[in-house]
Amino acid sequence: MKTKCNICNFNFAILPFVALLWLSNGAFGSLKVSRFVQNGKDSSNEVHDGDWIEIVIEPEDSLIELVEVTCVTEDNHLVTLGKVSQNGSQTTFAVGTKRIGVAEISCGETGSGTGQNNAEVLPIEIRIVLDSNWVATVFPFFGFVVIIGLNILFGTDISVADIRFIIRSPKPLFSTALCQFVLLPPYGLGVARLLGYEADVSLGILMVCCAPGGLFSNTVTYLIDGEVPLSIAMSFFSTICAIGTMPLNLLLYSQFISDDPSFKPSDIPYLNLLLSLVIIAVPVAVGMLLAAKAKKATVQLTKFGKPVVLLLLMIYIAIGLYVNWFAFSLLEPRDFGGAILVPLGGYCLGGLATLILRLRCSQVKTCSVEVGMQNAIIVVAMTRIVFDPPQSDLNSILPLSIAFINTVCVMPIYLTHILVKKHNKRYRDVCEQNKEAQMRDRELFDKGRKTSDKELTKTGTPICTGVRKYSANGEKDVKKTHSNLSENGRNVSFDKNEGENDNSIKLNNLQPK
Predict the structure, then answer these.
(1) What is the total count of domains within the chain?
(2) Which of 36, 76, 153, 371 is at 20 to 30 A from 210, Cα to Cα?
(3) What is the per-residue pLDDT across 313-340, written as a single tens digit (0 to 9) for each?
């Protein structure tokens, strides 16, 4: 008896239709993004924050009919999804953006996400970047003009004698450089470790701590009666040093953050560092020239110096807050801690180092501000070189926050100085004595001579502080002095147009030997 072969009666002609039916059910179907549409026009996967973009999805094979396509994302804090339309040939999804970042979207036919049909999942990346406007475009140029104008103003308060004195007495310069490039980088690394930041954020903090001083340190020094010539010299000197120390510190400390850091010493924007030198040197030289050639006009200009500086700072802060609001909106409480601790540590390190060296109060304030106000804009420039948007904007959030907090701190620092100076006579006297000491230093170097404790002692004059006055030969002189000067931490006063002896000085609390 012959057995009937059923397979021999199978109609092989229907195989293509079976295969097509199988594919139409999504078993082996694969999808592709046909195009991105924004405002009715073809676009890319890059969209501004707050805008909408449509994703058109089609099957790879045009003969395959789509069944049901769904898209999901875990980045709901970045985007919202909604289906617009679907037919047999394509599906359109609308994506609304909330803030900058990179959103990952997964699309597939119904059931593919659970593995029911074994269809491929289509990954789609949406890059959400900042919405540019004319204010953000103009802001860097406005900041450039403000810094140029302020440096010209500060230059009117500097003479060649100041520069000579700073060069011949480099103790404040070297103490500031020590704090900035030796002590501050490991401190920044410690802050990053303490707060448990990710590698890229930790590296951003480290870079800020390796950057030179600058930004508005000269402005703060001017407002709180520090020594502007010294502050400008420090900014210039630290920027020159940073060309070599910044890559060295990054190479040394970045290995404690990540084995494969995103930033390399070769990414340092040396052109920006050189531009910083030019922005400091040229306007200051113009101000010094104006002070030398147009003294009357310069004196009138400096009368309105502090109100003008405060006005420019308030405008700069307001525009900066508007332009960089995205950075503050993305900050977490832990990020605020880092943005505050980094400059605060710089202030403390600079002040402590100069107190140990027994520098005068105005120099302590100057060095403290210079170390605390690092040039975080250099770090922002580095992130723009290394990364494309929006990653560059995300990596610059903490450096921008540090720079802005430093700028905002100008007002409370200045107001504290004003209030203490108004209600504390001792502090007020110290500020006046420091100003006169700075003038005396200038006069001494103009004449090409120095006065030291040893030289005064040789004349028979004791060095001390107090209320009585003695002439250089030790004879008592009861006439009132004209001005008090601080020399090497002691109060000394030189008579001008009073007394018979031009060398008479005021000394306190000690009788002559």
Answers:
(1) 3
(2) 153
(3) 888 888 888 888 888 888 888 888 888 9
